[in-house]
Specification:
The chain is α+β, with helices and mostly antiparallel strands. Helix content is about 45%, strand content about 20%. The protein has helices at about 1-35, 50-60, 70-75, 75-90, 115-125, 160-165, 190-195, 205-210, 210-230, 250-265, 270-275, and strands at about 100-105, 105-110, 125-135, 140-145, 150-155, 170-175, 180-190, 245-250, 290-295. The strands form four sheets. The chain has a three-stranded antiparallel beta sheet. A two-stranded antiparallel sheet has the order 1-2. It has a two-stranded antiparallel ribbon with strand order 4-5. Helix 1 packs across helix 4. The radius of gyration is 27 Å and the shape is flat. The relative contact order is 0.10.
Length: about 300
Amino acid sequence: MENQNTQVAENKSTQVAKVQKEITSQVLSKINTFQSTGELKLPNDYSPENALKSAMLELTETKNNAGKYALDFCTQESIANALLKMVVWGLSPMKKQCDFIMYGNKLSCDIEYTGNIALAKRFGGLKDITSNAVFKGDEFVFEVNPETGKKKLIKHSQTLESMGSKDVVGAYSILEMNDGSKYMEVMSMQQIKDAWNQGAMKGNSPAHKNFPDQMAIKTVINRACKPLIRTSNDAVLYSDDDGNGERTIDVVAENVKHDINTNANKEVLGFKDISDAEVVDEVVENGNDNNVATIPETVQETATEGPGF
């Protein structure tokens, strides 16, 4: 009997590994196809391979309240679509920027508040964001500029005693943008609870009850980042461009790269060769004092539609 159970467990593990490999291959193939046809452009600092591997590690442990595992219970189509969404958004489950949620036999990739911060920094010009909960007893004063309608924090004083309470009356975020400007998003506790009521748990999860200040902060961060993401463009995906339609090329660096590619591994140098070698400074003339030239951009790359939130 014990041997039979062991064999069943091994077969199950083999089957799950096969499903993982098939789905990962399908998603990577689709991503490569999209990229080769110009339908998808990913940030330079994002690795879809790493994100998919970490997603699969998380999915092996993801299960619903009935104990059904996502890789067994959810349709392969919904799993593939959830993974594809994750890659198109450029998010990583390992960094808790997104979560995989089971809705019946469908798997969904939902963005975490940290994912919204990452997207706002990548696409929306956000430099930094600071958020706090406001507790009953805090001295909290803000004002609204009558000309711009923007809110500004005037004063927020709190004590260790007030911070330890669960009597949260609101939360706010201060956003610092790359251009140096700042603005504030503030929500009352009633507004925060109204937002919680839109979710499946209606604000009654253990996290909402035990850590209302942290959950309130997440809510105000999501609200603050949302307009930055939704009104952003994909210019950051074309960061090689200098912004005026011309691409800047470092001539010296390109010449060095060409020489390395052309001459590398064509001559074996011994220790005697190195010690006897004469150092010669080569001067590259290109008519530009900065050794940098610009050429017109001739190829227009196709932008992808941004993530829909």
